[in-house]
Amino acid sequence: MVRAWYMDADPSDQRTPHLKNPPEFLTLDELYKVSGVEYFKLNINSYTTDGVLDKIKKNRGYTYEDEMTCSRECLANFDQMLKKFFQEHLHTDEEIRFVLDGSGFFDVRDKNDNWIRIEVVAGDMIIIPSGIYHRFTLDTKDYIKAKRFFIGEPVWLPHNRPADDMECRKEYLKKLQTGEFKSG
Length: 184
What we know:
By secondary structure, the protein is α+β, with helices and mostly antiparallel strands. It is built from four helices and eleven strands; from the N terminus they run ββαβαβαβββββββα. Strands 1, 2, 3, 4, 6, 7, 8, 9 and 10 form a nine-stranded antiparallel β-sheet that branches.
């Protein structure tokens, strides 16, 4: 089950949990309200046959999917790529990840620009809204396998911060200000 918490400011190894002392955990509803990040728990053993994933894909219009594995063994220039993933950026489309195996962290900015760390493990599906600043890192296990979903052709382009003048960023901030993310 996914866990989310406010991060400390320690600049050491990005792959460690970075819990504050004392920890400040968020419920899924709180996470949604302050960031717009959505969460679904899928059964890793039956997602191909139980219809839950198919229903999400249909309801949200996801028409393209692929699978990626990120580990020291399969990713060329692993350390450089991990640093690249960890650069704060946004996308013009949602970022959807369904974890099949392994684990990692997605970090997102809340409405007050504070970092929230979201720990994902097998069975977790998160949807990061368009226009939110975020980043990704593996944890110390250095392995994750996930499905990625898109509406239409995949858009891979990250826009590094600052990108506040982009329309997707303006729309995201408007949703936060108007309270569109009230309940998940």
